[in-house]
Amino acid sequence: MTYTFWILLTASLVGISCGIVGVLLILRKMAMLSDAISHTVLLGIISSYLITNSLDGFYMFIGAAIVGVLTTVFVQLLNSAGVQSDAAIGVVFTFLFAIGVILVSMFARDVHIDVEHSIMGEIAFIPWMTVDWFGIEGIPQAVWMLGFVLIIDLFLILLLYKEFKLSSFDPGLAAALGLPVGLLHYVLMGMTSITAVASFDAVGAILVVAMLIAPGATAYLLTERLHMMFILSAVFGVIAAVTGYFIAAWLNASIAGMMATMAGVLFLLAFIFSPTHGIIAKRFSQRKIQQVDIET
C-alpha cells in the first residue's frame, strides 16, 4: 500500500465515522458538544500519559474516552441544574481543556503531545506509525482504531436505529412510549467520545469538529429521510477528505485544515443549491407565492 493510500484511508474513516455520528448530533441540536468533547479529550490524553508514562495509543484512547464521557456528564448536570445548555458546554469545555493545556505545558514539553499537534494534528505521519495486531503487519495504528470505532458506531446505529430516530425527532413521544431517552443520550455521547478520541491524535481537533458537524449538516439540507442522511453524511465526509488531501498537496498547505475547508465548501454548496432548503430554491418559492398573491 502506498503512502497516499494510508492517508486517504485514515481521513475517509474519520469522515465516515464522524459523519454518521454527526447526523444524530445535528438532529438533537447538540452539534457544538462535539467541539467541547474534541478539545477536552486533551485532558484525558495527557492524564493517561502522566499515569502510565507511556505514549501507547490504547492507554490514551481509554483516558480520552473517560474524559469525553465525563464532559457530557458535567454538561448534563449543569443543564439539569438550570444552566442553559450553551453556557454549560462553554464552561465545561474551557475548564477541562484549559487544565489539559496546563498539564501539557508543565509535564509534557519534551514529548509529541503539544498544543499545536492537538489542535491541528498531523495526518501526514500516519503511515509511519504502524502496529502489528492479529498477525497482520504494516497497518497504521490510526487505521486499526478508526476501523474498530466505525464498526462499533455502525453496530449501535443499526441496533438502536428506531430508538435513535424517535428520540431525535420527538423525545417527548419517545419518553411517553417508555423508551430510555436518557440512556440513549449517553450512548450517543459515548459514541461521540470514542469517535472523537480515535480521530483526535491522527487529524487534530479542528478536523474532528468539522467532520462531526459539516457532513451531517450538509446531508440535513439535502434529504429528510434519516437513512439517507447517514449515507450522504458518510459520502460527504469521504469527498471532503479526498479532495482536501489533493488540494493540500497541490498548494503545499495543511492537510487537515484543507479537509475541514472542503467540508465547509460542500456545506456552502448545499446551502445555496439544495432543492428544498437552499437559498435559490427558497427565493424561487417566495417569488412564486408573490406572483400567486398578485394574480389573486
Automatic annotation (TrEMBL):
Membrane topology: Multi-pass membrane protein
One Pfam family named in its UniProt record: ABC-3
Species annotation: Geomicrobium halophilum
GO cellular component, as recorded: ATP-binding cassette (ABC) transporter complex
Localization per record: Cell membrane
Transmembrane annotation, as ranges: 6-26, 57-75, 87-108, 142-161, 173-196, 202-222, 229-251, 257-280
Tagged with keyword Membrane: yes
Keywords (A to Z) from UniProt: Cell membrane, Membrane, Transmembrane, Transmembrane helix, Transport
Xref: SUPFAM superfamilies: ABC transporter involved in vitamin B12 uptake, BtuC
Entry superkingdom: Bacteria
Protein name: Manganese/zinc/iron transport system permease protein
Similarity-based family: Belongs to the ABC-3 integral membrane protein family.
Major location (coarse): membrane
Any GO BP annotation: response to zinc ion
